[in-house]
Structure formats: C-alpha cells, structure tokens
C-alpha cells in the first residue's frame, strides 16, 4: 500500500466498523493497529501484492474487459492561453479493490475511481479530449461546470477512439463530472465520476484559510447489477480526500493544526442518494452551496447535498482530536461515507491517533 496516497482510491469500511475511508487515513488506521477495516484501492502495487480475489461484479464484466487493468495516470491539464486550457483524460477499465480479496472491475477515468480532480479558472475555454481505451464500450464526458449542447459536446467517443470538445467554464464552484453514455446509471455506478473545481482567482472566497481539501462522496453496488442500482440501495459508500495545496492536488495526509481554518470542497458524485454533510466537533462558519460565492450560508451544522451537488465549507478547528467528516445519514456513514481529519498541535501526524467518537 506504499503508494496508496498517489492514486485515487476506493475504500470501503466494514459494516461493523466506523473507520476512515480516505487515502491518508488508511495509513493512519493501519499504523494505529485499530480494528481492521475493509479497504480498497485502484493501485496496482496493491493489486500485485494481494491474493487472488473474486470480482464482486463478475457477472457483469464484458469478455473484452476481463484482462484489462490500466494503471492510474494523472489528468493532463495544459494552459495554452490566459483563458484557455487543454484537458486530456482517458476512459478505461481498472481493478478496484473493494475489500480484502474482493475486486470490482470498474470503468474509470484515468484509472481512478472517483476520477482525478480537474481544476480550471472561471472564464476558461476548455478544450477537452477523451481518449477511450475501452475496447468495447462507448464513453463520454459530462462536465456539470459548463453551458453547452449535450448532444454535441457530451457525445459518445467510440472504443479505441478519441474525441475533442470545447466549452467555457463560466461559473465558479465545485461540480460533478461523469460519463454521460447510456445507460448513464451503469457508467456512473461503475466508477466514471469525479470533481471539477472552477476557481475565480480575481474574486477568491473572502476568508483566508490554512488548509484546503477536496472531499468526494461516492456510492458502490457490490453486485454490479442494474436492478440493485435501480433500487438505489448501495452496498458501500466511500469518502475520498485529496489535499489542495497552492492550487494543485496533493497527497499529504488529512491533517490540520489547532487553530487552522479549514476549507473543504465537497462533492457528492454518488449515483442517487443525497448526503447530509457534517464534520463532528465543529460548525461550518461559512458555506457556499455548489461553491458559488452568492450561495453563502452561515453557521450550518450539516449541509444537505443532492446527488451531483457540491459545497465549499469552512470551519476552524479549536482543539486537538480526530474529527469525523461524514454523511450524518448513518446508514451511509456505516457503509463507508466517512473520513477522518486529524488535528494536532503542530499539524503533524501523531504516531497513534486517538479514536474518533460520535
Ligand atoms: Cu462511460
């Protein structure tokens, strides 16, 4: 698991244990020798080291995808003008570990599930290219951050082909992206989801913050079965966390120091369920629904985020401790919609983090 922080991971908690399920906290939990948690990763080092697993979605894997397991690669974002960026992503098939000895053959963007965080600036024209490495299935990209014709610019890209689409990111905020190929439900449930953040550097959020993280909630269906998806009862949730440092996505642990003001870019990429987003032990001093500065709320305990919705939340951590970042719908938290923010005096990880309480 040594590189687990460098790729997006899918981590599932056991029904019996409320435990961390983000990349960094997996390490913490292991170090702390707590009750073992069920974890998952799209990381190939992990794959190589694990014993032979069984795909939980075995019955739904297409024969041509059976031997595919493409390595995670970073999203390519190249600025070609003051207000123009080229973004290139792949659609592919990647093994995702959903529990010890249990694999999910996922459809992914860039070999990650959820896919990589994309960051652009307000007003940018995005030239988006999707390289479809899947040998059998069409895929596409639906960015919630743009105004465009879906039929033209969210169009399918055929297997082993690529397509380029152009649109503008006019609205600041935190948005979902997903594959929009029919049946959309299946492409979303199989892992083709992620987060795009549109920043406004000319008019940033008013508060100065010490730490920024991207937190992404997702749903999984261990059968891979369309009927289960239609019934909207996920077997697992995940809460992935990525650091944002100097505007770039990093992989440092989910930590803060006492007195820090923390900003979370939260996005609910799950297929169907709303999420009651909450951080144990604090109050959201400032909330911007969908990350838009005009949607400003104060003093919120929990924020209801619809499927596909997002929010920017800010709070200050005043004491040391382990702060659960979770859906307060506890059926979801018990199935994995929980991560843990470690707060220490110096902002460094302790050898033995204390147990979360709620
Ligand atoms: Cu797709």
TrEMBL record:
UniProt keyword Metal-binding present: yes
Entry keywords, A to Z: Copper, Metal-binding, Oxidoreductase, Repeat, Signal
EC numbers on record: 1.7.2.1
Start and end residues of each Plastocyanin-like domain: 94-202, 228-344
Residues that, per the record, bind Cu cation: 139, 144, 178-179, 187, 192, 328
UniProt signal peptide: 1-19
Cofactor needs: Cu(2+); Cu(+)
EC class name: oxidoreductase
Name of one Pfam family that matches: Cu-oxidase_2
GO molecular function: copper ion binding; nitrite reductase (NO-forming) activity
Entries under SUPFAM superfamilies matching the protein: Cupredoxins
Reactions accelerated catalytically: nitric oxide + Fe(III)-[cytochrome c] + H2O = Fe(II)-[cytochrome c] + nitrite + 2 H(+)
Family statement drawn from the similarity comment of this UniProt entry: Belongs to the multicopper oxidase family.
Assembly and oligomerization: Homotrimer.
Alphabetized PANTHER family for the sequence: FI03373P-RELATED, MULTI-COPPER OXIDASE
Protein name, per record: Copper-containing nitrite reductase
